[in-house]
Design a protein that fits this description.
There is one protein chain. With about 260 residues, this protein is an alpha+beta fold. The protein has a single domain (about 55-250), classed as Transferase(Phosphotransferase), domain 1. Helices cover about 40% and strands about 20% of the residues. The chain contains seven helices and ten strands. The protein has helices at about 5-15, 65-70, 80-90, 90-115, 150-155, 170-200, 205-220; strands at about 25, 30-35, 45, 60-65, 115-120, 125-130, 135-140, 150, 235-240, 245-250. The strands form four sheets. A four-stranded mixed β-sheet has the order 1-7-6-4. Strands 2-3 form a two-stranded antiparallel ribbon. A hairpin with a 5-residue loop joins strand 9 and strand 10 (about 245-250). The two termini are about 35 Å apart.
């Protein structure tokens, strides 16, 4: 990781100490090691294994990609999400909406609107926390604090801006980045996978899930139209002359907002 990335992660981690929301926790990133004094120097960051806020309760966490992926050692096993729903004997649509999709939407929107952080809540960075005894869901856990920061929102709340300029959102790229992090990373990279499982194993219509998620999105982000449009964006296959990946408009309408 480069110096600016390490600095950004640590500053975001510090800032989140002042933020709480029900059923949300994160892995803090508190120590960075950099080799050399050059601004472009590389290093690494240490991520703590104790969640914040500290609960003290016996729980364990499953990355979301493990819930919908195939077990390579036991390929005939049902996906973990299906097994969990069957074990809890709970309605699959209610479970997925109330314990996974809606909490993720609430957390993403609230963290953005209150702290200006654009979380990347795809299947690798987001985890489901379960009670160790009954396997009942307790909340959502997030990891990887190298996120973009919206200075406009920080200024609205009179919050400091100790983050490197490389990680600050501008007016020119706000629409692109907002869509990338929500429509692509949450919508396509996570919710689409969960929806396909529920349709395949339980006959739940993806459109039913999408309708409920859209309502939840605007419940927690009522002025979203000031930041989003009806367009969606994703990474281009082409590399720009300055060796950076472009974010370009897709032909896909937003499905989850």
């Amino acid at each position: 990781m480069r110096r600016n990335t390490i600095q950004n992660s640590i500053e975001v981690s510090k800032d989140l100490e002042n933020f709480t929301i029900a059923k949300f926790a994160y892995f803090p990133e508190t120590i960075g090691i950099i080799y050399g004094s050059d601004p472009e120097a590389w290093g690494f960051i240490i991520r703590e294994t104790t969640l914040r806020p500290v609960s003290g309760k016996k729980r364990f966490r499953i990355p979301f990609f493990a819930l919908y992926s195939q077990d390579t050692k036991k390929p005939d096993d049902l996906p973990l999400l299906v097994q969990l729903i069957q074990f809890l004997n709970i309605d699959p649509q209610i479970f997925t909406l109330n314990h996974i999709m809606k909490p993720i939407i609430q957390i993403w929107c609230t963290v953005l609107r209150k702290r200006g952080f654009l979380f990347e809540m795809h299947g690798q960075n987001t985890l489901l926390e379960l009670d160790i005894h009954q396997l009942s869901p307790c909340g959502i856990v997030y990891r990887d604090l190298d996120v973009y920061v919206d200075p406009m929102i920080r200024e609205q709340h009179q919050l400091p801006l100790p983050f490197p300029k490389t990680h600050l959102i501008t007016y020119e790229n706000r629409e692109n980045l907002y869509s990338l992090k929500y429509d692509a990373f949450i919508g396509h990279h996570l919710f689409d996978y969960l929806a396909r499982l529920l349709e395949k194993y339980f006959g739940v219509s993806p459109k039913t899930l999408q309708k409920s998620c859209k309502e939840t999105f605007y419940q927690f982000f009522p002025d979203a139209d000031l930041y989003f449009t009806d367009k969606t964006f994703y990474y281009s296959n082409e590399i720009s002359p300055d060796n950076k990946v472009k974010i370009v408009e897709t032909n896909n309408p937003p499905k989850w907002r």
